Amino acid sequence: MKNKLMFLIVVIAFMQLTVNVFSQIKPFTFEGVKDYDNGARIAYFYIEGFDYMKEARYIEKEMLNLPEVKRFFIYEGVGKNRCMIEANSYVNEEFIMNAINKIILKFPDNYKDFNKKDNFPKFIDTGNPKLDNENYQKAKSEWIKN
Question: Is residue 50 classed exposed, middle or buried when 0-12, 13-18 and 19+ CB atoms within 10 A define those classes?
Fold first, then answer.
């Protein structure tokens, strides 16, 4: 009985790890799309397949590195995340899904969302510039590590 229980726990843990490591977005369709005379397209759609907003920020940053993409936003939602893309008019759902899935595969575990300002250390001026700088640099280094 203990062996079966231990086996079940190991299988469940492995399945959870597999889901997290190999998460991919599912196929989707545009909810709204408009093509412009200048060859641009703006589209809205929902995606699911990742849970963390820091992944979303990483995906946004990487999508903007693609030459076809001019703007890309992910709006946090429950279960699904709404997206907006402005790109070349030939960019379709399959292009976006493949691009995002490639980005998710290279998502680093230690990615730090440097746009997030909530617990970023503040410079405290005690009147001792040398000590203040040392303390600030130490606090900033710790923040980056964590």
Answer: buried
